[in-house]
Amino acid sequence: MEALRPRIEQIANDLLDAWETEDEVDVIDTFAYPLPITVICELLGVPERDREEVRNLTAELLAPATMAEAYGRFAMYVQRLVDTKEPGDDVITELRDEPNLVNTLVLLITRS
After folding, report:
1. How many angstroms separate the CA atoms of 106 and 14, rounded?
2. Model-level pTM?
3. Residue 40 CB: number of other CB atoms within 10 A?
4. What would the pLDDT profile of 47-73 be if each residue is shown by its tens digit?
5. What is d(CA 98, CA 5) in angstroms, rounded to the nearest whole number?
6. Three-state SS across the chain?
7. Beta-carbon neighbour count of residue 38 at 10 Å?
8. Cα torsion at 38, 44, 49, 52 (round to 10°)?
9. pLDDT averaged over the chain?
10. Which homologous superfamily does the CATH classification assign to the domain defined by 2-110?
């Protein structure tokens, strides 16, 4: 975990730097929400181009009205990612053969 500290600090600093040009800042929307989901996406190995999709699916997973449909789309996304992702130094690579990988990732992401 200590090895992750510099990258997490960089992500936090990048989020805070964006505040410099703003007159008002919503701390939840611009820091408290994006920080953990960004860190988790990096740990998992989610490509940067997919992170907005993951953020949107996460929000839908937490809303009762869209939960079931979002879970299906999220499960399809995770399966596609597992099938096509190049191996790397990330959680998905390590857990690629885990039979409950989709459920594990849904829990990890929605609990952030």
Report:
1. 26
2. 0.79
3. 19
4. 999 999 888 888 888 888 988 898 889
5. 27
6. CHHHHHHHHHHHHHHHHHHHHCCCCCHHHHHHCHHHHHHHHHHHCCCHHHHHHHHHHHHHHCCCCCHHHHHHHHHHHHHHHHHHCCCCCCHHHHHCCCCCHHHHHHHHHHCC
7. 22
8. -50
9. 88
10. Cytochrome P450 (1.10.630.10)
| Positive or negative torsion for Cα 12, 52, 82, 99 | positive
Is the backbone of residue 75 left (phi > 0), alpha (psi -120 to 50) or beta?
Answer: alpha
Quote the CA–CA distance of 18 and 5 in Å, as a whole number.
Answer: 20
Task: Let me know the angle formed at the C-alpha of 39 by 34 and 71, rounded to the nearest 5 degrees.
Answer: 75
Query: Residue 37 has which token pair?
Result: 């989901």
Q: How far is CA 112 from CA 4, 34, 38, 86, 105, in A?
A: 17, 10, 10, 25, 11
Contact call for residues 40 and 71 (beta carbons, < 8 A): no
Q: CA 92 to CA 99: how far, in whole Å?
A: 12
In the chain, where the domains are located: 2-110
The C-alpha atoms of residue 108 and residue 97 are separated, in whole angstroms, by 17
